[in-house]
């Protein structure tokens, strides 16, 4: 499996919180889906509140 690195912001209430995550997956699409799933669960936000600014293969 390949590693993908994502960075961006999560909007919570009136503020935003930056994030940077590394995800292991077979494709960029699958990695992005895992990223959204993990962040939504951890921060109790919907996918629309997550902005991915950079996505790179590690």
Automatic annotation (TrEMBL):
It holds the Pfam family Ribosomal_L18A. Keywords: Ribonucleoprotein, Ribosomal protein, RNA-binding, rRNA-binding. Residues 1-54 form the Large ribosomal subunit protein eL20 domain. Part of the 50S ribosomal subunit. Binds 23S rRNA. Transmembrane segments: none annotated. GO terms for cellular component: ribosome. This is Large ribosomal subunit protein eL20. It comes from Candidatus Nanohalococcus occultus. Gene3D superfamilies: 3.10.20.10.
């Amino acid at each position: 499996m390949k590693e993908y690195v994502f960075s961006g912001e999560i909007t919570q209430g009136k503020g935003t919180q930056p994030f940077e995550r590394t995800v292991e997956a077979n494709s960029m699409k699958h990695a992005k889906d895992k990223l959204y799933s993990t962040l939504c669960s951890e921060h109790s936000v919907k996918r629309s509140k997550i902005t991915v600014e950079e996505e790179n293969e590690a």
